[in-house]
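Late entry, written up from scratch paper. The run itself happened at the end of the previous shift, but nothing got recorded in the book at the time, so transcribing now.
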Amino acid sequence: MKIGLYGLCFFCFVLLSCGDNKTSTDVSDIENSAQTPVLTAKAIENFDYKEYALSSESEKALTNWEKYQELAIQISYLKKADLSFFREDKKDLRQFIKEFKAGIPKEFLTNPIISRTVIVETTLLKLNENLSLDHVNDRTKLLSIKEVLVAFSNLNYQINKTLERNLYDQIQPE
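Output as recorded:
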């Protein structure tokens, strides 16, 4: 009885393992996957995150913060998959970040905004590192791009929130 049960199990195993599995890939499939670039504007556009824009008051308050304006322009290029600014030499990027942090207007020198600028700095350096290394896969590069976009969006949110809080603090009760 046991032998019959083992024989039946073995027969079922052999029958199930004789499927039509395709272990080899066609050369054309490999060529097609190599030709389709992953770091595209469409892939970046499909990111799911909350994008915060600056309010009109925030835009007025930030007109003199030149490095912020430059970063905002580079972020808009990043959304179009232009990665040239973020691939440049790490020394140049560090210099930009240093000037970015040094140029923060006095009214925005609050702990939440300073922490957001540090997060932006970290994500920019991580993106630069991932883009400059050849062995990093495209998925990791896309995740790094998303992290930069989210960090910049959160910085915008915090700037808006700080200005709004300052506005409410200036209102005197009657």
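The chain has one domain: 38-44+55-170.
(Scratch paper discarded after transcription.)
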